[in-house]
Amino acid sequence: MDYESLGAQALDSIAKAQDLDALDALRVAFLGKQGSISGLLKTLGAMSPEERQTTGPKIHALREGVTNALADKKAALESAALEAKLAAETVDLTLPAPENARGSVHPVSQVMDELAEIFADLGFAVATGPEIEDDWHNFTALNMPESHPARAMHDTFYIDKAASGYETEQDMVLRTHTSPVQIRAMLAAGGDKPLRIIAPGRVYRSDSDATHTPMFHQVEGLVIGKDITLAHLKWTLETMLKAFFERDDIVLRLRPSYFPFTEPSVEVDTGYSYVDGRRVVGGSGDAPGHSWMELLGSGMVNRHVLTAGGYDPDQWQGFAFGVGVDRLAMLKYGMNDLRAFFDGDARWLGHYGFSGLDVPTLSGGVGVQA
Ligand code: DAH
Fold this sequence. Notes:
By secondary structure, the protein is of the alpha+beta class.
């Protein structure tokens, strides 16, 4: 058989190949080690130079033609296979998308962020302190020396020093309030400059019922200056609460009280009423249908506390306050059982939690847009 008809036959069988497997079998039959064209190439060595000169180009042309035909056919078969697959497989765009489980921001974190935002606008920095605190910062420096009766009201958790390896003379406690951060912030400031801080964080007391949990959250506030007065305290709290509850009709009532770390001390009440069975802050507590509720403790920083913080009480004075964050969250967002805050129930978090994108900003009104 001459090389042309051999070539025509090979090209014909390649054209008729039905699938990639059949095509590959042809490739092996023609060009594989034992393939027919490979065999022809081997015969070149035994030919006379003249014969090789006329026959060689024909065999090479045959091999090239077959190689190209195989490649073209392979590309054609592959694209046909893809077409067939695309035609067979359809995507139903009307099917519901798979649900994406997303976490949420806990109301306590959200409210702390809201408060930090509000106070930042008033020039307050955020200060922190340890949750395992020593007796001096938690009590003594705050004008509660040992045997002070106010200590008994704090239901303190004491650290077992022997078991935990603390090497201090003092008792170590889980801080019972954020007030020790007042002392730490004053000492860090060095006693010679004005101070404006808030200290949000966890606090601990051995107490548990529907409105008390062994761990809860407070925000402490402290302002020190040369001429800070109770009027500054009232304005600051009023401004803060108006921004936080996003209403202008917040009315405060300051009642004389007692805290060891302030003198004078005031308990701050706010007017509220019931709307659809829910407590809503706003209006005077003396207005019809309204009452007062206690919101936070505050006062002018006691001289002993200024001294413990390294400030000269004859030159410096200031105000302080402490407020329950969980309480504020419940009032603003309408939860009624504090214990659920810390159960870690994903259903509760899904309902009361916030989207990570709901970052509180003053321009948006710090709260979350419904
Ligand atoms: N530390 C107090 C508590 O936990 C709250 C408090 C009251 C803080 C009056 C203050 C303050 O800074 O001036 O009960």
